[in-house]
Amino acid sequence: MAAAKWYEEVRADALPDVDDDFEASLAQTYSKKAIVEEIHDHILSNRGKFDEAIVDAMDRWVKIPGRATIAENCKRDPKKPHYALVPQGKTCAFCTMLAGRGFVYKSEKTAHKMHTHCDCVACPEWDANPNKIRGYNPDALSDEWDKAKKIVWEKNKAEARKNGKDASEVFEPGMKEILAQLRKTPGLCSDSCKPVNNAKSSKGSINIPDGARVNSKEKRAMQWIAQSGHNVTANPVKNIQNQKNPDFTIDKETWELKTISGNGKNTIDNALKHASKQSANVILDITDSNMPRDLINTIVQKRLSREDTKLNCVCIIENGKINYYKRAGHSPKPTP
Q1: Secondary structure (H, E, C), 206-229
Q2: Same domain, residue pair 143 and 115
Q3: Phi then psi dihedrals of residue 25, to 5 deg
Q4: Residue 105 is part of which domain span?
Q5: In the chain, how many domains are there?
Q6: Does pTM surpass 0.85?
Q7: pLDDT tens, 181-208?
């Protein structure tokens, strides 16, 4: 409702001499059935990170209908405006790219292309009175994109020449390559040059590459493991087969993290059961749990001793303190 009302107000300001009784309509919101189905899917497939997944989903459920309302009315409006995706302050490289295109969008389909927690606003413009938005300079953002593209292209050509190939045959760089370069522009994007990416601790290292998503508790676990002398990489959410990856690669072995907050008698056993579907190596962060520590250790050792266990190693972390358990007869590479 708010998006439709705002559209009418902006239109009236931009076209003061037009009186055509145009009324903005609301775009279709998520149906109750679709929301229930998505919640159900998260319960079945993403229980370990259910809270985070639902917060992300709610962000989409709220924001996408508002953006779609602007897009739908731009399409319906007889004055045929276009709209821009305008960031609210510094934004990520992906949204910087979209914002740099200016007032070119006009389809509702485009409005649905947004990442989680995107704060960009769809702002319409009418040719009769171009909209001026303080702090929004699409030409400058487009120039930054062109600079990043040129840097990547020249780098690829140089690499081709180094390998004895004809530089003229090098294809234009793809979007992901340019976005990665755009993030290297100091101060431009909110995800530019993050200190945590490839950051060296006093002993180990932390790496969060493109495609990986790390929440605060996962980052906390990474820091503790790195401080104990290990190289920790956050894996992309999904692999090339579109299957979920284990959370981390630590010293070349994959590990799945489970942050324990519940106190039920089956909490640890269920966490290990679900985690073992992702990796034979599991990290249990029990910092936020009130379960007796002796009970947790007993459950872990019992699970590892079972003949049908899929687990090789379990690492228990509490406030940076690490205890390590392994299945009998298993000798892994150095681990947390």
Answers
A1: EECCCCCCCCHHHHHHHHHHHHCC
A2: no
A3: -110, 160
A4: 2-126
A5: 3
A6: no
A7: 898 888 888 776 443 334 444 578 999 9
